[in-house]
């Protein structure tokens, strides 16, 4: 894999440090594929993450949203030991993190038939939405100009 140096961007960009940090972290992270997951776009501002968690129960899974990071953790609580002749269903503990964009919030999380579904919505606050500014003509409002006689 090719590595990129983001130093020139750090020197000339203000407020994008989180983005460059994510890009840099992605370059150096080894890819773990467990547990398998999908990320779907359900609408313009709606998303869903589906995580396949075969062998886990609902109380063995922890979903946490903190600032712009969504964390899904799983730890099996097998009390009794099994003697497997072949174990193809992985039950190892895991911790998967998803970086969320600004204003993306977790709405619901459901667990059914070994599939964890997490719904996300991007809700931009009214103060951050674009607004139309009326353009007046002539003198600014509240000022009266008088002509000299």
TrEMBL record:
Please tell me whether the keyword Calcium is annotated for this protein.
no
Please tell me whether the keyword Magnesium is annotated for this protein.
no
- Keywords recorded for this protein, A-Z: Stress response
Q: Which CDD domains match?
A: ACD_IbpA-B_like (cd06470)
Which Gene3D superfamilies does the UniProt entry name for this protein?
2.60.40.790
Matching Pfam families, A to Z? HSP20
Taxonomically, the superkingdom here is: Bacteria
Q: Which PROSITE patterns match?
A: SHSP
Q: Which residues form the SHSP domain?
A: 28-138
Q: InterPro entries under this entry?
A: A-crystallin/Hsp20_dom, ACD_IbpA/B, HSP20-like_chaperone
Family (UniProt): Belongs to the small heat shock protein (HSP20) family.
Q: Which PANTHER family match?
A: PTHR47062, SMALL HEAT SHOCK PROTEIN IBPA (PTHR47062:SF1)
**The protein, known as:** Hsp20 family protein
Look up and give the organism this protein is from.
Bradyrhizobium brasilense
Lineage from the top down?
A: Bacteria, Pseudomonadati, Pseudomonadota, Alphaproteobacteria, Hyphomicrobiales
């Amino acid at each position: 894999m090719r590595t990129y140096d983001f130093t020139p961007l750090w020197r000339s960009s203000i407020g994008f440090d989180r983005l460059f940090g994510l890009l840099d972290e992605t370059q150096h992270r080894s890819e773990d594929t467990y547990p398998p997951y999908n990320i779907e776009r359900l609408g313009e501002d709606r998303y869903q993450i589906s995580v396949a968690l075969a062998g886990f129960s609902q109380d063995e899974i922890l979903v946490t949203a903190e600032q712009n990071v969504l964390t899904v953790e799983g730890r099996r609580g097998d009390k009794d030991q099994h003697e497997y002749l072949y174990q193809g269903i992985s039950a190892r503990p895991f911790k998967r993190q998803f970086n969320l964009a600004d204003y993306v919030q977790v709405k619901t999380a459901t667990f059914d038939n070994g599939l964890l579904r997490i719904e996300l919505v991007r809700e931009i606050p009214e103060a951050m939405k674009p607004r139309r500014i009326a353009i007046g003509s002539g003198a600014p409002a509240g000022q009266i100009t008088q002509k000299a006689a």
